[in-house]
Design goal:
Largest sheet: 6 strands, parallel
Order of helices and strands: EEEHEHEHEHEHEHEEHEE
Structural class: alpha/beta
Helix content: 25-40%
Number of helices: 7
Shape: globular
Length: 282
């Protein structure tokens, strides 16, 4: 049940309401500063870009890789159009305050080691931040869930470096398993246990979870919510779209400024078409 706001700007559950917050949105909050906002309607979900790897490549069967040159041009396009890339946690806090109009979420799935090379310097150039979703049980390993080329994954030390530079770290599960239909114990391991391990590694709460393969059903979304996360990142718009299944726009090597503009418009249109509880999202 959602707490009713009080006239002093504090909800009955002790969380500051939107009207009570006038301070800048913190980039890396801790504890009770983590996002506790209301349900996000599909038509109002903020725009978020989904990346995986940023590196040079000769083979990329799953189209998960963007070259550093293309990524730099994409970030330059955002900056030139008055948009600032931020992590999903920061984006949602700004959204709750009605201050996300010039923000775009930047997310990187799987936690590839090239984030420290091809991504971080570009983010720092423009004053951007992002969220990296890491496969907690594979740190320092490789993407063995794919049949394509092997890519090294972030080590704990590299995760510390990203975190120290303002990158939000979220969970992508323990072993990159698809969650719909799996046993309850395995679902708990992928959601709750991965969060606990990542929290112990970082020394602070972990707010975000990203569904492997973008696959989410009601049971998976409930497990993410009940594990203490503050949001879940999905891919496509659908019946579960909202705080626990946030839609994101895939970005690939072919995406130039014109295609990014089109994807932003498509994100808005798809959100308007989604219905929640039988009612139009608008």
């Amino acid at each position: 049940m959602v707490a009713e706001p009080r006239t002093d700007g504090v909800r009955s559950d002790g969380v500051l309401s939107d009207t009570a917050r006038t301070d800048p949105v913190p980039a890396n909050p801790s504890g009770t500063e983590l996002f506790h906002g209301p349900r996000i309607k599909p038509a109002k979900s903020p725009w978020t870009l989904m990346y995986h790897s940023v590196d040079h490549y000769t083979e990329d069967p799953y189209r998960v890789t963007v070259t550093p040159e293309r990524f730099a041009r994409q970030m330059a396009w955002l900056h030139a159009h008055g948009l600032r890339g931020v992590g999903l946690g920061e984006l949602l806090r700004a959204h709750a305050l009605g201050r996300a109009a010039d923000l775009v979420g930047l997310t990187f799935d799987d936690g590839y080691a090239d984030l420290t090379r091809g991504v971080l310097p570009v983010l720092q150039r423009y004053g951007f931040s992002a969220t990296a979703f890491v496969v907690v049980g594979r740190l320092g390993g490789h993407n063995i869930w794919d049949e394509g080329p092997r890519k090294p994954l972030l080590t704990a030390d590299q995760i510390f470096r990203l975190h120290d530079c303002g990158v939000e770290i979220g969970s992508h599960g323990m072993y990159h398993r698809s969650l719909p239909g799996i046993a309850a114990a395995t679902l708990a391991e992928e959601t709750r246990h991965s969060r606990e391990l990542l929290r112990d590694l970082l020394g602070e709460p972990v707010g975000g979870f990203c569904y492997p393969y973008g696959a989410v059903d009601a049971a998976a979304a409930a497990a993410v919510r009940d594990s203490g996360y503050h949001y879940g990142a999905a891919i496509a718009h659908g019946p579960l779209t909202g705080r626990w299944a946030l839609p994101r726009s895939y970005v690939g090597e072919r995406d130039n400024g014109l295609r990014l503009r089109a994807k932003r418009a498509r994100h808005r249109l798809r959100g308007l078409r989604v219905r929640v509880d039988g009612e139009d999202a608008r």
